[in-house]
Amino acid sequence: MSIILEVLTGQRFVAPKDKATGTVITQNTFAEVDPATGLVVPADASTTVATLAGRFINDISAADALLVADVEAPIKNALYLVDTTNNSDTAHDGQLMVLTDASEVNNTGTTAGAGIVKQEAVFGQPADKKIYVSIV
Q: What is the pTM of this model?
C-alpha cells in the first residue's frame, strides 16, 4: 500500500531533493533526509519529526541512476490514509506513532514519545489495518 493524501488543508509544495544514485524510490511513501549525508532516502523506524521530508511523488528504480527525487513537503493538518503494522483500533485515536518503514505506521496501542504522525481515525475494518493520520 502507499501513503495517500486524503484531505488537503493547504497548498502542496513539491521540490526536487538530492538523492544517491541507485536509491530505489516508491511513489507515495514517506521520505526523510538522512542527517549523515543530507540526501533524501526512504523513511524508516528511526525517522523523526526533524528528518521527515514528506512523501515521494514518483517511482525511481535503481537503474534510473537519477540524483534527485520529487518530494511533497509534509502538510500540517492534512489527513493521510496509511497502512498499519497491527489491526486498527479507534482506541488509538489521538496517539502519536512512529513509522515501521516508508509505507507503514507502527500502531502499538500506546503513544510514542518520538511519534511523527497522530492517528485521527480508523478506515474500514480493524483487519484492514488502515488509519487516517496527520503529521505532527
A: 0.89
